[in-house]
Write a structure and sequence with these properties.
β4, α5 and β5 form a beta-alpha-beta unit. This protein has one domain: 3-Layer(aba) Sandwich (Rossmann fold), CATH 3.40.50.360. The chain has 8 helices and 6 strands, in the order αβαβαβαβαββααα. Strands 1, 2, 3, 4, 5 and 6 form a 6-stranded parallel β-sheet that branches. Bound molecules: flavin mononucleotide. Flavin mononucleotide binds next to loops.
């Protein structure tokens, strides 16, 4: 590992989808590729499927920070270790996935004050999901970047057709680069 990467701010790219057959890993990998090629942040993929958090199972209020469950304490350590975040998330029924909200709601202080970029996708770019998620990040006193790239999927893609992000969404790459540059600036 180069010295530059070793000291670079750590950014977790959190995938909003845990759905079977999901598209999210391909899009998140592409977002990370763009980030690694364009700025010096250290990107790490976080798959919520690897962090099973039973729905709303903490007995206390997360904002008070006294977690009772071992899986919440592990998730807390994970999120606390990041300087910033990128949420790569699909739009589900005009909102963002329940798994993402549940993962956010298990914690509080671990998010506060940290920069975040939101990359959404869906049949119309997932803008409604991005707007809602942005509002949630503001509630958590995070610092969302201004640029919110929205990737538009075709009907064929939504039905499970082939997707090559670098080829199919080339026109979105600049907005993603811009959002990640804004994240980098907030972390400088
Ligand atoms: C439960 C559900 C709800 C969806 N709702 C929307 C929607 O409101 N708007 C939209 O554009 N696409 C919607 N879609 C299509 C998704 O954008 C598309 O299936 C996408 O691939 C989902 O991301 P994922 O494969 O990473 O889970 C929905 C898909 C699912 C599974």
């Amino acid at each position: 590992m180069s010295e530059k990467i070793a000291t670079a701010p750590r950014v977790q790219v959190i995938m909003g989808s845990i759905r079977a057959g999901r598209l999210c890993p391909r899009l998140a990998a592409w977002v990370m590729e763009i980030g690694r090629a364009s700025n010096g942040l250290a990107y790490e993929l976080v798959d919520l499927a690897d962090w099973p958090l039973p729905m709303d199972d903490e007995p206390g209020i997360p904002a008070r920070g006294a977690y009772a469950r071992e899986h919440t304490l592990a998730w807390s350590r994970k999120v606390a270790s990041a300087a910033g975040f990128v949420f790569v998330t699909p739009q589900y029924n005009w909102g963002y996935p329940a798994a993402l909200k549940n993962a956010i709601d298990h914690l509080y202080a671990e998010w506060v004050g940290k920069p975040v970029a939101i990359v959404s996708y869906g049949g119309h770019g997932g803008g409604k999901c991005a707007t809602q998620l942005r509002q949630v990040t503001e509630g958590l006193k995070m610092r969302p970047v201004a640029t919110m790239p929205g990737i538009t999927l075709t009907h064929e893609m939504i039905k499970g057709g082939p997707v090559d992000p670098a080829r199919d969404f080339a026109s979105d790459a600049e907005a993603i680069r811009q959002a990640l540059a804004e994240l980098d600036a907030l972390l400088a």
